[in-house]
């Protein structure tokens, strides 16, 4: 069984790998929140996101700005959780031994890029669950 | 023929299509400003032939000038737009449906690379296939509500 990084190790690794993300909130060994900008492609908008980490919970990422818009003809954004955070993985893909910085954070860029493509074309090209849902169709 | 000849005259060997179109449009607009009463586009194979003789008609020339200024402005706006989705909307207004197809095609290529686990992400969040930059993007399955 792999060793689970400590809370401090997770926070340290985030600072090392993602210097553009600023640690904005830390509650002892319970919670850490980073905020920073993501530019997924040279043509993309720059997105301000927050990443919230609490051991034993799935990490949470939200887009703070610009406001994510629902394209015409769709009734919601694709691949979001009910609370509005991005749904980047299925159960089991994120595990406690993983470093947030190495596994979870890179998925944010993919989601943002495929969101822009979805808004432009109506197709979610990045794969995922519920492919029959109108907002998730790929062609 | 007139437009391609004009474009060829202003093309400076730019490597990207976007850069080439920007410079060609800048060049044509500058040429319009400096050519009075009108631009003359001569046949490169026969300089005695004026390919643009229809522009002797002031109405036709005015339509060309207006069209060029509009294209120059719309292209500059599209290039300056941030966001693939926003830029695509502007480009679609200029070039039509093929823009949507091109955006989806490029995204499918990126998705194919993602499935092969060859993509990486730079500290700015930029997705790249360059092997020495940033971190690998590990396999994931986007989820969310049904």
How would you describe the overall organization of this protein?
The complex is a heterodimer of chains A (139) and B (146). Chain A has 139 residues and is an alpha+beta fold. Helices cover 24% and strands 19% of the residues of chain A. Chain A has one domain: Ubiquitin Conjugating Enzyme, CATH 3.10.110. In chain A, strands 1-2-3-4 form a four-stranded antiparallel sheet, covered by helices on one side. Chain A starts with 6 loop residues before the first helix and ends in an 18-residue tail after the last helix. In chain A, 40% of the residues are buried. In chain B, the strands form two sheets. In chain B, strands 4-3-5 form a three-stranded antiparallel sheet, with no helix packed on it. A two-stranded antiparallel sheet of chain B has the order 1-2. The longest helix of chain B is centred in the middle third of the chain and has 23 residues. Chain B starts with a helix and ends in a 10-residue tail after the last strand. Classes of the chains: A alpha+beta (139), B mainly alpha (146). At the A-B interface, helix 2 of A face helix 4, helix 5, strand 3 and strand 5 of B.
Please outline what is shown here.
By secondary structure, chain A is an alpha+beta fold.
Oligomer: heterodimer
**Which ranges of chain A are low-confidence, i.e. pLDDT below 50, for 5 or more consecutive residues?**
none
What is the CATH topology of chain A?
Ubiquitin Conjugating Enzyme
Question: What is the helix content of chain B?
Answer: 40-55%
How many domain modules of chain A? 1
Main sheet characteristics of chain A = 4 strands, antiparallel
């Amino acid at each position: 069984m792999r060793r689970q990084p400590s809370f401090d190790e997770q926070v340290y690794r985030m600072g090392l790998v993602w210097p553009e993300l600023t640690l904005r909130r830390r509650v002892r060994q319970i919670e850490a929140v980073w905020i920073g900008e993501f530019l997924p492609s040279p043509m993309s908008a720059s997105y301000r996101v927050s990443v919230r980490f609490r051991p034993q919970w799935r990490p949470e990422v939200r887009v703070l700005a610009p406001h994510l818009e629902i394209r015409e003809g769709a009734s919601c954004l694709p691949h979001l959780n009910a609370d509005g955070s991005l749904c980047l993985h299925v159960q089991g893909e994120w595990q406690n031994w993983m470093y947030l910085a190495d596994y979870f954070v890179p998925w944010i860029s993919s989601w943002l890029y495929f969101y822009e493509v979805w808004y432009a074309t109506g197709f979610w090209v990045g794969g995922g669950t519920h492919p029959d849902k109108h907002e998730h169709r790929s062609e | 023929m007139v437009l391609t000849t004009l474009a060829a005259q202003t093309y400076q060997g730019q490597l990207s299509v976007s850069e080439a179109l920007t410079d060609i449009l800048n060049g044509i607009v500058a040429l319009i400003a400096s050519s009075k009463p009108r631009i003359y586009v001569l046949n490169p194979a026969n300089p005695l032939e004026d390919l643009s003789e229809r522009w002797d008609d002031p109405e036709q020339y005015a339509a060309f000038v207006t069209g060029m200024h509009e294209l120059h402005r719309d292209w500059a706006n599209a290039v300056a737009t941030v966001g693939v989705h926003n830029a695509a909307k502007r480009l679609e207004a200029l070039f039509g449906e093929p823009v949507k197809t091109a955006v989806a095609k490029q995204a499918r290529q990126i998705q194919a690379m993602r499935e092969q686990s060859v993509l990486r992400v730079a500290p700015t969040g930029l997705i790249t296939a360059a092997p020495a930059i940033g971190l690998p993007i590990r396999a994931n399955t986007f989820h969310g509500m049904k």
